[in-house]
């Protein structure tokens, strides 16, 4: 990538030229694009649900759905029909307007975010040359974050309107989780903005023509992969639906089509964040490295949509792989990972990227850039080592505290607020748990005495 291509002024002019392609389509082309996106997302949801169950079945050495249609491909369709035909029950005492509107608030923003995703270059669509993208904006990348923030309202309002403590707790958990991981996700975008010099999605894809940002900004890409799983409430971060704690989370009191809307919102959000990862980090619709050299027309016509879809399918597979491989984390671990690990790492990484970027744009010598990078790396590693020692010290103190609590609980049955029957504690004393063998003998002896006294009384 040449220094001229890295110049933000050149990137700004390039983004303006790409924006000129939009807003000139006939109304029927725009309608076809919008309907195409809607149909594509609905088909992706159906196929993703089926793939989720089939791949998970193979990972667990079972078949998965294999009855409805060839190879079980129509299972998701029949599940949707079954859900739509179920009785729609609204609990008494709920806020009906908010209760009904919450699933729509959760689902609609997920569809809107896909409107700025570039699926390919300009193509010939029914005799009209048009970009394979519905629209683009000067701040299109921020639209994705805005729609994700709007979707949170559907979760928390659904839990609040249900008038159920379990649903409310699930809604609060979901909102806290999404907000926490949305901050780390937004910081991942910042590094991309610095490198691309534009916020338009088409301009960001154009900036990756030579090198993908997943290579140049590997820490941002890896953190984005983690945050997109947390953003969509998928395993191992599906704490909003912990079956052993809060049943179904914010969807506990929902059924029929309203439950389907929440379910649809989750899977459409998965499709959206996967498409965003392809756009920002995996080169968008550009062919993988090496393919364009072997195939001259790899980045022309409708071929780029194939490359985009293959990248999209690979990222979607990560959701299933993570769900089948990783156990659910605790809620405190979830929040600690977001606030104490991902966000600080992102802040340090963005600082380093910004410094190096400014040095490159100012024409600094490679020796100066290498020295700055080396110094920054040493300081970062020292800070990381200090933080690691602090964490280990905390873990050691926590282990000592647990051992002390266990010792006290062993000697005092009532320690920690555990329910110990008063008669048992007063009769056998604190040695009940300390000497299990003597405890068993004492209980047996007491039972024998009572039996003997009973026999004497009855005999008399």
UniProtKB/TrEMBL annotation:
One of its GO terms (biological process) is aerobic respiration. It catalyses: a quinone + NADH + 5 H(+)(in) = a quinol + NAD(+) + 4 H(+)(out). InterPro entries: NADH_UbQ_OxRdtase_su1/FPO, NADH_UbQ_OxRdtase_su1_CS. GO terms for cellular component: plasma membrane. It is a multi-pass membrane protein. Residues 402-460 are annotated as: Disordered. Pfam families: NADHdh. Its main location: membrane. Its EC number is 7.1.1.-. Belongs to the complex I subunit 1 family. NDH-1 is composed of 14 different subunits. Subunits NuoA, H, J, K, L, M, N constitute the membrane sector of the complex. PANTHER family: NADH DEHYDROGENASE SUBUNIT 1, NADH-UBIQUINONE OXIDOREDUCTASE CHAIN 1. NDH-1 shuttles electrons from NADH, via FMN and iron-sulfur (Fe-S) centers, to quinones in the respiratory chain. The immediate electron acceptor for the enzyme in this species is believed to be ubiquinone. Couples the redox reaction to proton translocation (for every two electrons transferred, four hydrogen ions are translocated across the cytoplasmic membrane), and thus conserves the redox energy in a proton gradient. This subunit may bind ubiquinone. This is NADH-quinone oxidoreductase subunit H. It comes from Nocardiopsis kunsanensis. The gene is nuoH.
């Amino acid at each position: 990538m040449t220094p001229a291509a890295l110049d933000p002024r050149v990137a700004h002019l390039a983004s303006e030229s790409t924006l000129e392609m939009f807003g000139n389509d006939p109304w029927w082309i725009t309608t076809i694009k919008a309907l195409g996106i809607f149909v594509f997302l609905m088909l992706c949801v159906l196929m993703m649900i089926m793939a989720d169950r089939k791949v998970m079945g193979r990972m667990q050495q079972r078949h998965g759905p294999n009855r409805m249609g060839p190879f079980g491909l129509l299972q998701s369709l029949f599940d949707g029909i079954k859900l739509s035909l179920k009785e729609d029950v609204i609990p008494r005492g709920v806020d009906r307007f908010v209760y009904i509107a919450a699933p729509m608030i959760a689902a609609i923003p997920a569809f809107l975010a896909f409107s700025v995703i570039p699926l390919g270059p300009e193509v010939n669509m029914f005799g009209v040359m048009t970009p394979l993208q519905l629209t683009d904006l000067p701040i299109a990348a921020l639209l994705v974050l805005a729609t994700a923030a709007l979707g949170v309202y559907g979760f928390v309002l659904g839990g609040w309107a249900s008038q159920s403590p379990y649903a409310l707790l699930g809604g609060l958990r979901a909102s806290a989780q999404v907000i926490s991981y949305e901050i780390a996700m937004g910081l991942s975008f910042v590094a991309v903005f610095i490198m691309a010099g534009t916020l338009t999605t088409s301009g960001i894809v154009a900036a990756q023509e030579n090198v993908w940002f997943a290579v140049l900004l590997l820490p941002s890409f890896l953190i984005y992969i983690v945050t997109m799983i947390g953003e969509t409430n998928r395993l191992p971060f599906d704490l909003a639906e912990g079956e052993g704690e809060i049943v179904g989370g914010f969807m506990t009191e929902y059924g029929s089509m309203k439950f389907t809307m929440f379910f649809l919102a989750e899977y459409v959000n998965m499709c959206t964040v996967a498409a965003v990862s392809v756009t920002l980090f995996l080169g968008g619709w550009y062919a993988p490295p090496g393919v364009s050299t072997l195939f001259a027309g790899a980045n022309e016509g409708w071929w780029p949509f194939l490359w985009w879809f293959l990248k999209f399918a690979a990222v979607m597979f990560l959701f299933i792989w993570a769900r089948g491989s990783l156990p659910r984390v605790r809620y405190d671990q979830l929040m600690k990972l977001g606030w104490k690990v991902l966000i600080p790492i992102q802040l340090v990484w963005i600082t380093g990227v910004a410094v190096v970027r400014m040095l490159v744009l100012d024409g600094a010598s490679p020796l100066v850039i290498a020295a700055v990078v080396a110094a920054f790396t040493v300081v970062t590693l020292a800070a990381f080592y200090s933080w690691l020692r602090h964490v280990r010290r905390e873990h050691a103190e926590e282990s000592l505290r647990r051992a002390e609590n266990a010792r006290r609980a062993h000697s005092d049955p009532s320690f920690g607020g555990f329910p110990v029957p008063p008669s048992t504690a007063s009769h056998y004393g604190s040695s009940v748990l300390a000497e299990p063998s003597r405890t068993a003998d004492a209980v047996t002896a007491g039972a024998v005495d009572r039996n003997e006294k009973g026999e004497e009384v009855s005999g008399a």
